[in-house]
Amino acid sequence: MKFIDEYRDPAAAGRWLAAIRGLVTRPWTLMEVCGGQTHAILKYGIDELLPREVTLLHGPGCPVCVTPLEKIDRAVELASRSDVIFCSFGDMLRVPGTDRDLLSVKASGGDVRIVYSPLDAVRIATENPDKQVVFFAVGFETTAPGNAMAVYQAKRAGLGNFSVLVSHVLVPPALEAILGSPSCRVQGFLAAGHVCAVMGYSEYIPIAARYKVPIVVTGFEPIDLLHGVFLCLKQLEEGRAEVENQYARVVSELGNRPAQALVREVFGVVTRAWRGIGEIPGSGLGLNEAFAGFDAERRFDLSAVGPRPEPAECIAGQVLQGLRKPHECQAFGTRCTPEHPLGATMVSSEGACAAYYQHRRVVGGQEGSR
Ligand code: SF4
Question: How far apart are CA 232 and CA 243, in angstroms?
Fold first, then answer.
């Protein structure tokens, strides 16, 4: 299949690995930003094929994982109301709140519906004028245009029974938070290609210059990842710190300008809390005042649902910052499994703990490939 087969070609992978081996002269630590990249790396064993000098850390780019516990509890509270139809992408349903997840609300009779587009939730609101329809608007820059379009269309249609529970986050402030931490070990980033398809990569240029780290916009197939690693290592070996675009078949420097304009019209930049990490200034999107009437947190009284502590043994916050790996968690694969998760990183399709659980065998705290 075009754009798939050539990016999974074993012979091409062998050539990139040989090129990487010929390049590396000392240890380097890179971070892949996106959880989708983490899953591909674990699935294809790319981290094990790389020379031992190269360490890959897994980054915070899993929107489900970084949605704060308080926001999940608010979703559960809304979904439990008899007058609410709560709409969400399917990967949010198993994310544990303090006491319950959305799936258990659905099992006990709550009207929780999985949708494949935020516009489906707008349609459901149109078809159910006697109900309040709430869409769980979670995600990075990738999903922001679709969610902005849903709110924009609801406003244009004068829908008074549609609102969104917003937990949007932005990648560049998270990279800066990681780079600014005294415990940061990251020397180069593989940036998330799909985020840059929307936003372009010009935002990364000052970050690469300020922190002197190479940032390579990278795709999600094995050859993309090996090529991205090669470009990043080449910069490090040559003493350069620039932004490069491995994913040029999808990403341009300026990105999708109409999508960015729509996002700017509906959303503004706000300080956002990241689950397990804490508040990062300017790291999220919230509805602009012109669209504030569609904010579920203004429409409903959710003041009783405040911040709650995370399960003490869950180290997902450290995993999301590349400080620990999933198998270093004492609960991994025992008290925390996809069936009984303690943290979101174990249930999200982009979660690092889920990736290790699916693709890596862990025996006595030591990891090994399946
Ligand atoms: S294995 Fe479970 S408890 Fe441990 S960090 Fe991952 S999600 Fe949290």
Answer: 9
Give the phi and the psi of residue 228 in degrees, each rounded to 5. Answer: -60, -45
pLDDT of 368: 47
What are the residues facing 332 on neighbouring strands?
Answer: 336
Calculate how far, in angstroms, residue 315's C-alpha sits from the geometric centre of ligand 1: 6
CA 370/CA 368 separation, integer angstroms: 7
Average pLDDT over residues 124-141: 97
Both structure tokens of 239: 């003493």
> The pTM is what?
0.93
What average pLDDT is seen over the chain? 94
- Residues 6 or more apart whose CB falls under 8 angstroms from that of 250 comprise 193, 194, 197, 219
Ligand 1, pocket-test mutation among 58, 315, 325, most atoms within 8 A of CB: 315
353 lines ligand 1 (CB under 6 A): yes
Q: How many residues does the chain have?
A: 370
The response to whether residue 332 sits with its C-beta less than 6 Å from ligand 1 reads yes
Nearest CA to ligand 1 atom 8: 314
320 CB within 6 A, ligand 1: no
Q: Is the pLDDT of residue 190 over 60?
A: yes
pLDDT tens digits, residue range 293-347? 999 999 999 989 988 888 889 999 999 999 999 999 999 999 999 999 999 999 9
Q: Can you list the domains of the chain with their CATH numbers?
A: 1-313 (3.40.50.11740), 316-367 (no CATH)
Alpha helix segments (H runs only) across the chain? 10-23, 35-44, 46-49, 63-66, 69-79, 102-107, 118-127, 144-156, 171-180, 193-199, 204-211, 222-238, 257-266, 296-299, 316-320, 352-359
* Residue 329 alpha carbon to ligand 1 centre in Å: 6
What pairs with residue 137 in β-bridges? 166
* C-alpha span between 367 and 201 (Å, rounded): 35
